[in-house]
Design a protein that fits this description.
It is a single chain. The chain has 14 helices and 24 strands. It is an alpha/beta fold. It folds into 2 domains: 8-125 and 147-256 and 464-480, Aldehyde Dehydrogenase, Chain A, domain 1 (3-Layer(aba) Sandwich); 261-444, Aldehyde Dehydrogenase, Chain A, domain 2, CATH 3.40.309. Strand 21 (419-423), helix 13 and strand 22 (441-444) form a beta-alpha-beta unit. The longest helix is centred in the first third of the chain and has 30 residues, at 69-98.
Length: 501
């Protein structure tokens, strides 16, 4: 798989064929570190394309659901093997289209590899229950059944990992899928679909339709033959999707915003906490739903922590993610950059002290990209907008706290509940924090990022709607429980009525 080639006009993948969009139009995919570089031109799909993809998925469903799960899993296993071979090439192209540094895009691909292997293993472990009946000569069990056509809408910040989170459990459960990748980063998802095709996935089982949320995403959400929607993105868009799916009672999974916190207690390893806050706040230029955009530090160590944290933030090297000496790449596009700049001004107006960064980088090697300095506000009040609202950029707000109780109150005082972290050497504080922090993920002595594929991923409050990605939780979402009673008594048995004595 070559990289740095002439720009290619990509097509949709529908029913096992690569086909041009009905509109005949394309969307440019440009390198956020150098907008002169055109990575590719991707379909500007419309409802007509979505309808064809859903029809293909619907037609393929019966044969795929009847394919034994271990056989479905063998295809996934072969796909994982191909991903291993192509990890470096895919990672380099992902940096070109998304901007994050090469070490991170390698991790993104590795996550897809891990998820694909994991779900391949589940093909022989789609467990139900067998249980004694309360009546004689009767057998009771539960089995999993696929749901049907799944519509998957994925974000730009993890262009192959998150598509794998959705596609692999859906496929191993016997569903067919139509995926709409983010318009900023479709190439990585195209690679994933190509790999599945090469691994032997039958035509129509996985389809990709590229385009905008309005013209391609909405028709997918509203299509009557799509039985399930899984969406990762903003809370505002998630709410719209949830409302659109409600009349048809579609299965809906929403993975949305976060305003995550790192708590640093007075007995913590401060240097380790600084390492975690730097990685949590500025990894992927802060463009993670799990990014640590808030840090609450005990007053006893506040001065030491902020001095070290600010110094480290100022030393981070910003640049093209393909350069070996780059610590942080650009943000994904001009709109995201403008959002970051807006929130920096809000922070200043609110009275937070700007201790590092705060400026767009747009001269010299930065002139043709969407770069922003790693930015730190200190002496923040938890009620400030920069401490309450998701920025999705390299901006971290540091707040002083006087106790664990106060820290937990601050942590829980936002509308999101995805990830939280505490740095402490006090085991009692660690256990209290993991119990009382109202987030779907809690880390102790580690930053708010670093989820593993075999455990549930997701959050509380306005971060999600109760479902989870990854691990067995994903299998639960992409399958229906079917309970089976087999009565071999050769007479009518009426459960609780005949069992009441």
């Amino acid at each position: 798989m070559a990289t740095a080639v002439a720009p290619t006009a990509y097509k949709n993948y529908i029913g096992g064929e690569w086909v041009s969009p009905a509109s005949g139009k394309g969307i440019e995919n440009r390198n956020p570190a150098n907008t002169d570089e055109l990575v590719g031109i991707f379909p500007a799909s419309t409802e007509e394309d979505v309808n064809l993809a859903v029809e293909a998925a619907k037609n393929a469903f019966d044969s795929w659901r009847l394919t034994p799960a271990p056989k479905r899993a063998e295809i996934l296993y072969r796909a994982a093997e191909i991903l291993v071979q192509r990890k470096e090439d895919i990672a380099r192209d992902m940096t070109r289209e998304m901007g994050k540094v090469l070490a991170e895009t390698r991790g993104d691909v590795q996550e897809a590899i891990d998820m694909t292997y994991l779900m391949a293993g589940e093909g022989r472990r789609l467990f139900g229950q067998t249980t004694p009946s309360e009546l004689p000569n009767k057998f009771a069990m539960s089995v999993r059944s696929p749901i049907g056509v799944c519509g998957l809408i994925t974000p730009w910040n993890f262009p192959i990992a998150i598509p794998s989170w959705k596609m692999m459990p859906a496929l191993v459960c016997g569903n067919t899928v139509v995926i709409k990748p983010a318009q900023d980063t479709p190439l990585s998802t195209y690679y994933l679909v190509q790999v599945l095709e090469e691994a032997g996935l039958p035509a129509g089982v996985a389809n990709i339709v590229s385009g905008t949320g309005t013209l391609a995403g909405s028709p997918l959400v509203n299509h009557p033959d799509v039985k399930l929607i899984s969406f990762t993105g903003s809370t505002d868009t998630g709410r719209i999707i949830n409302e659109a799916c409600a009349p048809a009672f579609k299965h809906v999974h929403l993975e949305m915003g976060g305003k995550n916190i790192i708590i640093v207690m007075d007995g913590a390893n401060i240097d380790l906490a600084v390492d975690g806050a730097i990685w949590g706040g500025f990894g992927t230029s802060g463009q993670r739903c799990t990014a640590a955009s808030r840090v609450a530090v005990h007053k006893k160590v506040y001065g030491e922590f902020t001095e070290k944290f600010v110094a480290r933030a100022k030393k981070l090297r910003v640049g093209n993610g393909l350069d070996a000496d780059t610590d942080m790449g650009p943000v994904v596009n001009e709109a995201q950059l403008q959002t970051v700049m807006k929130y920096v001004e809000i922070g200043k107006q609110e009275g937070a002290k700007l201790a590092a960064g705060g400026h767009r980088l747009d001269t010299g090697k930065y002139a043709k990209g969407w770069f922003f300095e790693p930015t730190v506000f200190i002496d923040c009040n938890p009620t400030m907008r920069i401490c309450q609202e998701e920025i999705f950029g390299p901006v971290v707000s540091v707040m002083p706290i006087g106790s664990l109780d106060e820290a937990i109150e601050v942590a829980n005082g936002v509308k999101y509940g995805l990830s939280s972290s505490i740095y402490t050497r006090n085991i009692n504080d660690a256990f209290r924090a993991q119990r009382d922090l109202d987030t779907g993920i809690v880390y102790v002595n580690a930053p708010t990022i670093g989820a593993e594929t075999h455990l549930p991923f997701g959050g509380t409050k306005q971060t999600g709607n109760g479902h989870r990605e990854s691990g067995l939780a994903a299998i639960d979402f992409y399958s229906e429980w079917k309970t089976v009673y087999m009565d071999y008594s050769d007479r009518l048995q009426r459960a609780q009525i005949d069992n009441s004595e």
